[in-house]
Amino acid sequence: MKRKIVAALAASFVMSAGAYADEIKIAHVYGKTGPFEAYAKQSHVGLMMGLEYATGGTMELDGKKIVVIEKDTQLKPDIGKAMLEEAYGDDEVDIAVGPVSSGVALAMLPVAEEFEKVLIVEPAVADSITGKAFNKYIFRTSRNSSQDAISNAVALGKEGVSIVTLAQDYAFGRDGVAAFKEALKGTGAKLAYEEYAPRDTKDFTAHAQRMFDALAKEEGRKIIFVIWAGGGNPLGKLKAMNPESKGVELATGGNILAAMKAYKALPGMEGATYYYYDIPKNPVNDWLVKEHFKRYNSPPDFFTAGGMASAMAVIEAIKQAGSTETDALISAMEGMEFDSPKGKMKFRKEDHQAMQSMYHFKIKVQDDVEWGIPELVRELKMDEMSIPVRN
Known about the structure:
Blueprint: H1 2-20, E1 23-30, H2 37-54, E2 60-61, E3 64-72, H3 77-89, E4 95-97, H4 102-115, E5 118-121, E6 138-140, H5 145-156, E7 161-168, H6 171-184, E8 190-197, H7 205-216, E9 221-227, H8 234-239, E10 248-252, E11 270-273, H9 283-296, H10 302-321, H11 326-333, E12 337-338, E13 345-347, E14 354-355, E15 358-364, E16 373-380
Parallel strand pairs: 1-3, 1-4, 4-5, 5-6, 7-8, 7-9, 9-10
Antiparallel strand pairs: 2-3, 11-15, 12-13, 13-14, 15-16
Helix pairs in contact: 2-10, 3-4, 5-6, 10-11
């Protein structure tokens, strides 16, 4: 009996310590260096701006200072795993956010389970993160591959359309194509061929030829749909091969502004995007756009919005839980709605994936804008998309 009382008192003390600690520690574990460095920088800027917005500029919650500890995964799964272990173990953070890469994220998920601490995945996209690799400590503010796929299938999938895909040969690309293939069912479109390339590919000649050959066998409208993250500029390289002469169109989803410079050569191209700064109309996005222009002389980008969403989820979770204790956070976050630059998001209870709007666009070109502008065709709201529960 004494042991039970001591154990109960110890548990009570741990919970009280979590609820009343002097600081709230957040680890941002992300690929500060490596080929996704631009994504990482945006994500961190968004995280910090989101914490600022959600705390009214104080960077405090209930009188407790918010401390953000940065860890660089270098875009390597083993290092990402070690950095999260260090954050939970040595730094004793309350919650972690990150990483950029899906491959790194998959290596980090078991660490959250081992330490029994919440990890908010942002911006890694692979379905398997909140699917077959999921555990109860994982929440994701980023969209997943299915959300990307379903929104793009809505934009492109029509009767008489033949599509081939070009994707990177790792979790992000493979999961993306699998989800896109599933989402095309019932649209009348046909997925004629899948092409995969290494993440660091710069010469797309052989890949393009195989795709052109596959489409040459098809009738009707023909599209190459590109699922790509990072460098290499596959759209620009494919465009230089004159696909129009073969009756082939290029299509892709949204991306960061630097990548969308290639879109300027593709007026009228349709797709779907997670975010473009001029699309959402709400107070959070209004503040983000205004402040980002003021501080950086540029609009907030794709992953800036995601970083801000993750920060707002953290603050809302702690407010609702009244604590940084893990079980209290999980209880508060399952089914939790929270504000973001995209409007309302909601963590689905079954797999902790954030339900959110996506945006069907058509590219518009303006001489005074460096990139192709994704002009809104239609907002696809969270309740309009049937996102599979892959758990």
